[in-house]
């Protein structure tokens, strides 16, 4: 089969086309023919050698996709040949509370991922995709699952809540989609008025350009009559956490997801606000199989669909990485296999 490997992890040029033997399904395993793959920010970090320890150079990358079952090993009951199927990339985290042991089996990182014509997966991790859900809608296992975990599993979102999403990347756009489907209000930030216009067209209620309004927390408070946001999808990390605390409503939930804003330039001058507002600050990894099942059901019933920015062919995978790194996208960048 055709595949890509991550090479020496010195930058985008490390991504290398290769060929591998077709995988064989052993007991408890399933082989999928890959149909569609979703790119995420951590895929860039892997190629740059900055996502934890460097990985073997022959690792097949990418942690999010949808495939068609072509072979099922003995004992598998979750799917059958011909099913379209997906899985949460922490394949041993099936349900219950998170354990650091989940990081030991992370497809696309510790084990081979989606950027190949076929992928082998533990059968217990898989779930079939209903006919009513398109391939594009089923690209859920990273950005969408993270947003769901933040809003629903941690944030206990309810109609009328105000969700604040930082930026217009994959997680934030899915947070916007999921929140609006649940009857919540959404505030979103960006440095681009054009991206904010798109977010507004998707239903965002408050749009703030953090480049022209650097004190975006004060602006959010002004636009909410001093109340603030009930749930904050914190993708900026240390550099934006202080403003997120300021922008929070009493009893808000700040869910830490990433560090796209870079390092902090100072400590938390508003540390006491965490206590004064009774805030909850929680870090999360993507999510479990059980969470993905619930998300998939919500997508099926509500018709939530991704914003697809651009679709590349399998032979164009290096260009897809470069496009994602350029940062001009809004929503998902995908790779489609014939």
Largest sheet: 7 strands, mixed
What's the level 1 CATH class of the largest domain?
Alpha Beta
Quickly count the helices: 9
CATH topology of the largest domain: Quinone Oxidoreductase, Chain A, domain 1
Question: In which range does the helix fraction lie?
Answer: 25-40%
Compute the separation of the termini in Å: 13 Å
Q: How do the helices and strands follow one another from N- to C-terminus?
A: EEEHEEEEHEHEHEHEHEHEHEHE
In CATH terms, what is the architecture of the largest domain?
Alpha-Beta Complex
- Classification by helices and strands: alpha/beta
Question: What is the number of strand segments?
Answer: 15
* Spans where pLDDT lies below 50 across 5 or more residues: none
Specify the oligomeric state.
single chain
What is the strand content?
A: 15-25%
Assign an overall shape. Answer: globular
Q: Whole-number average pLDDT?
A: 96
Q: What's the CATH H-level homologous superfamily of the largest domain? A: Medium-chain alcohol dehydrogenases, catalytic domain
Rg of Cα set: 20 Å
